[in-house]
Amino acid sequence: MLASLMLLAVMSIRAQEENGFRSINVKTDFTENGFSWFNKAELLAAGNSEKHNAMTIGWGGIGTLWGRTALTVYVAEKRYTKQFLDKSQYFTVMAFGPDANRIMRYMGTQSGRDGDKATALGLHTAFTENGTPYYTEAVLVIECKTMYAAPFDPQYFKSEVPQNQYRNFPAGVHTMYIGEVVNAWTR
Known about the structure:
Elements: H1 2-18, E1 22-23, H2 26-29, E2 42-47, E3 52-57, E4 60-65, E5 68-76, H3 80-87, E6 90-95, H4 100-109, H5 117-121, E7 125-127, E8 133-135, E9 140-151, H6 160-167, E10 174-186
Antiparallel strand pairs: 1-10, 2-3, 2-6, 4-5, 5-10, 6-9, 7-8, 9-10
C-alpha cells in the first residue's frame, strides 16, 4: 500500500513537471504579498475528471490555521463552482501570466452552466494526484484540502461593510472555504 502511494506521488510530480511546473514550498518560496495577491484576481477550480468548473475570485486569505499552512477563499451561494467545492475534498487556486486579464474577465463573466469555459479560452485542463483540476497555462497552482466550510451568517455581521455588501447582492451570501495547502507548483 505504501509503495503504491509513493509511486502515485512520483507519477503526479512527473505529470506536473511534464506540464512545465516545479514543486514549491509555499512557506519559503511564495513571494507574493498576501494582502494584495487576491486583489489581482485568481482562478478557483474544483471538481473531478468527469465534471469540474473554475471561476474568478478576488477575495481570499493566506496564512496559518490549526498549525497548518492555509488558504481561504469565498464563494457566493449561486455560483456554479460552489456545487463542485461542496462535493470535492480538494480545490486549486491559480495565477496566470500576461494573458491573465482576458482569462479572469471571461471566467468571471461567463457561467460554466452554459458551456466549457476552459475550452472556450483555449485552456488545457490537467489533474493533480488528488484528481483536482488545474489549467496547464497557469504560472502558479496551489492545491488545498478543505478543512472547513461554512456560509456567512448575517446575524454576526458587526459593521456596515458586510451589511452593505449583501444588501443588493443577487448571488447570495458567501461561503468561506479554508483549505490546507497540500501542494504548490510554479513555472
